[in-house]
Amino acid sequence: MFRNLTPVVKNLLLINIGVFVIASYFMPGLEKIFALYYVESASFLPTQFVTYMFMHANFWHLFSNMFGLFIFGPLLEQFLGPKKLLTLWMVCGVGSGLLYSGYNAYKIHQLDQEIEAFYANPSPDTFNDFVKDNRHLFKSGVYDFIDEYSKNPESKSLIQRAKENYNGIRDIQINIPMVGASGALFGILIAFAMFFPNTELLLLFPPMPVKAKYLVLFYGLYTVYNIFNNNPADNVAHFAHLSGLIVGGILVYYWKRNRKNFY
Predict the structure, then answer these.
(1) How does residue 202 score in pLDDT terms, banded at 50, 70 and 90?
(2) CA dist., res. 80 & res. 204, Å (int)
(3) Which helix (H) or strand (E) is 201 found in, with range?
(4) pTM (2 decimals)?
(5) Chain centroid offset of residue 54 CA
């Protein structure tokens, strides 16, 4: 099985696994440098648009991304060549990080508008709605504060505490890092589906064959659903997945339109 590994795929696997082992057991602070933070965060570095894709949150996060690369990468590398496969991986990873950061900026802008609206017209009901939307980021003690604030809506000290909670949540939001090669992997998936659309793949769950184009279509629709569902407790960067599909699709389309050499 491992004899069929192509050079770029093998090196990407080794680098990702190596970084995970180093960060998990020898340099736990590496995530602070490699993970992708929002541009306003004190931890943000421009290099993170590249390094974040080599970091993973846990073993299963690493396994799922590397398994996908292991399954789809070798055939693509044989077809496209090492240079184009590496270009696909890196462009989709970096592009996914850039688009996700833009999406994150939009979400932070929405949060800033909420904060501005509360500052202009503070009320317990508005604060309660804010807590419901961000309940996964609050500690349980906030509900005692809501009760107290509801009973004393004109209290300047309670209004100030509510404002501090708003700003505290904003600070948390801009310091949530993104890690993982999912954006790059989704670029590999869309490329595979565009070059080998009718290749049948055997799923594990459920155990049934499915054509590559339908599998990627399902992943795309599922990702879009999760973006619009907007579950606040969901810590998966679904927009980054969608970004990988978009960037990968555009790059492959460009390659197919500008074929100067045979793959």
Answers:
(1) confident
(2) 27
(3) strand 200-202
(4) 0.88
(5) 13
